[in-house]
């Protein structure tokens, strides 16, 4: 299995796809561009959700789409998450390709029954008679003083559900390519957008001025169609000293921490949690012999636990130190104590020192 | 009483001169051993209900939600504005489909008792709700049923042997033994995959109808739930969406008085009708004699015409009675009066249509008895054929590795690994 498929990176993707002009975009613009491209290519693609239509979304991700494609394809919905996803299941059964938005991942719970019991199971229970080719977009993650209900990272709830794919981009380039791949995919996809990095990468130093995506290599985004295959990780930084498994905002926080420490870490941006790029993980950990897992979500039964178990099962004889997890604490997301909660540079530094000490 | 929060709440404030508050917990009219009594049901005459225009504004037809659309009177004559004036062949087709549904139910219930399958649910007494609606819809209108509308498949001439294969989870089961018996899926028959989760199909039907409208199609959607499941949040979200987008959908509530052991009062029936839910959403609401197949047909046609005219959705309450237990796992004598079904004032839907057909001179007792005999044989023969494909637990099922298929369109590595692991484990065990 090892070595049968190269780990994808941005350059190899770019080399294999034709996508016309490239312009600088932030992550919101890249997501908007992905929706625009897919609505232009496929009349079955419809966009729906709270405030997504006339107003263009509370984060502007759907700006201009209703004007361009009409109210039959981009429309505002009542405030009912179970209704939004339930209606999207019905539209998918009809033959449309819905892209519903849940305004914050913290508000996806009313839709859990429709997602878990219906969208995820429909192909299986009908033996393929009916499918649910929807992509649920939802801003997620903390670092914005969002408090308890604008900061959560519920990806572990969905990775535990058989029948849905879970995707989390970390750059504008990936956001567009992954979202196009998710919309084209015939399985339901949960597409979590790290809202902390909508407008620029975040290195974890909350007390320094915010940066924009300007000048970032992965903010040069093709204006046309391209896709990044689901299920392939990206080597964000090649290295030998240890492997760091992360995704979303944490990719940037880890990149910066590693640079500050001068540690030759290999950083894998997982991009898709289900299906997971297990080959990339195995290849890296067998090379480095050490593994750290970083996510914002709470620790117990979080996706990091699954990653840790997989690494332990598959790389046991290559491990030179216990696997470390740097995660959110097992508390609701606090408001005033956000930077004590967030798995930032201080905690990442401690964990790396501990792993390298053994 | 060591928790200060609890004790403060339980003690309340003393010394105030107010009557104590009382919690109302509904009780059904009769429990086991008690006499059933339906005299409190107000049953209007068969010709009493007016028939509004199909494009009527919901606000002008509020009374419909509190009345009862009926066609067949006590003598079996079709009367009033809602009489659909169906030709004899349609009436006899209805009669046959209802009788076949009942014969099918009887056979499959017995199959469960014989251990040939794990589970079954009858629709006895409610056959008109499915058959009347199915025959009033176009065949390519999509139905989003709950688990007690097997009559739709039968009315649409879906092979009963295919339904039996599903119930037996055998090698002929198109759903590959993955679903609990009766959770059919038949896309070709416009019959959406049944889910065990109640009322989830309601917003799905609305979404299907919205998609049809958005694409300029002419097909409509229909969905069914029981009165008990109207309490689910999905019911509310579906009605809101249907109203907001004027979706071409028919939302049926089968009020059979019982949700397992809970009588309809636990879904709100003491305070109002279920059709009256429509009033608050600005949806057209009809309340129909669910044991009168002509009334069900007429109401469904009205709602279908309304939807096709872009005049919006309709909510229909079918007033009926669940004659049998909730399922093969249920014993209704544990919670309700045994007399109820025989005293049910709206009678039996098959007997009422039979009386009507005999009154028209197109049917008689001998032909009815012959039909029942023939249908019993048809169902028996189909069951014997289906059993050749296997019955539950007798090994004639789909290959074990098929368990891992269709979770996703393409099987990801982790499912392939688990599939191989399972096969290796069974091989190692010598099985």
Helix content of chain A: 25-40%
Greatest chain-chain contact: A-B, 47 and 46 residues
Uncertain spans of chain A: 1-16
Give me the count of strands of chain A: 14
Write the CATH homologous superfamily of the largest domain in chain B.
Thiamin diphosphate (ThDP)-binding fold, Pyr/PP domains
The percent range for helix content of chain B is 25-40%
- Integer tally of domains of chain A: 2
Determine the number of helices of chain A (DSSP H or I, runs of at least 4 residues): 13
Low-pLDDT segments of chain B: none
EC number (chain A): 1.2.4.4
Organism (chain A): Sphingobium indicum (strain DSM 16413 / CCM 7287 / MTCC 6362 / UT26 / NBRC 101211 / UT26S) (Sphingobium japonicum)
GO molecular function (chain A): branched-chain 2-oxo acid dehydrogenase activity
Domain Transketolase-like pyrimidine-binding (chain A): 25-200
